[in-house]
Amino acid sequence: MTTDQHFLCSPSVAVPPRWREAFAHGQVHTAPDLMAPVTADWSGVLWLSSDDPDWQHDIKKSKQHNARLPVVLLSGTPDPREGLLALAAGASGYTHAYSLAELLRELAVVVQHGGLWVGPELLQRLVGSTATALAKLPNPSPSLVPNPWAALSAREAQVARAVTAGRSNKEVADSLFISERTVKAHLGAIFEKLAVRDRLQLVVRLAAGADPDTPPAR
């Protein structure tokens, strides 16, 4: 579902060619007041450019007009700090303005279904900070919430522990002396067992249980 794609920008900002390629029937809106066209009956995805100096204000304003409309910020020079600011303002996605058309279409599907789309470096930061914040919360009663760690093998627990600390697949592989392909295989099994679809959901899911002492690898 990639219909109803809206690119909102000031007249001086160029629409990225890859966006036009990805969404041949996408609508481009330009106006002195960028948020004037945003109405409650819009659907699909709203795309903004970081070339607009007021993009943070525009994201916040768009969410006020239509909280259900996901917003994606396209950046010519992606940076984790800029990405964090975009997410804090209410964006659901952040990526390079010259990403491949196929990736932009995939991104649109993800955010339209309530997902979050960020680059790998920003994702690592989010995973690490989320894990740190959740670790400070009291553990729920074991009788109320089954311990998700119990569903994992010893090696899967090692991989999960490293991933939720914010490490990349390569860093996990190097620290456990296994290949990146093996890390991906373990992650696939972990995601399936715990019914999660990404690292952020994994952090939250594992926070529901007490992490046992590091077990020996199988």
Polypeptide structure, described:
The chain has 218 residues and is of the alpha/beta class. Helix content is 44%, strand content 11%. The protein has 2 domains: 5-118, Rossmann fold (3-Layer(aba) Sandwich), CATH 3.40.50.2300; 123-206, Winged helix-like DNA-binding domain superfamily/Winged helix DNA-binding domain (Arc Repressor Mutant, subunit A, Orthogonal Bundle), CATH 1.10.10. It is built from 9 helices and 5 strands; from the N terminus they run βαββαβαβαααααα. A 5-stranded parallel beta sheet has the order 2-1-3-4-5.
Reading the helices and strands in chain order gives EHEEHEHEHHHHHH
- Strand order within the widest sheet? 2-1-3-4-5
What would CATH call the homologous superfamily of the largest domain?
Response regulator
First-to-last CA distance: 42 Å
Q: What is the level 1 CATH name of the largest domain?
A: Alpha Beta
What is the fold-level CATH name, i.e. the topology of the largest domain? Rossmann fold
- How many domains, as an integer? 2
Total helical elements: 9
Overall mean pLDDT stands at: 83
Gyration radius from CA atoms, angstroms: 20 Å
Characterize the overall form: elongated
What CATH architecture label of the largest domain applies? 3-Layer(aba) Sandwich
How many extended strands? 5
SS strand fraction: 5-15%
Topology:
Blueprint: E1 5-9, H1 17-22, E2 27-30, E3 45-49, H2 55-65, E4 71-75, H3 80-89, E5 93-96, H4 101-112, H5 120-135, H6 154-163, H7 169-176, H8 180-194, H9 199-206
Parallel strand pairs: 1-2, 1-3, 3-4, 4-5
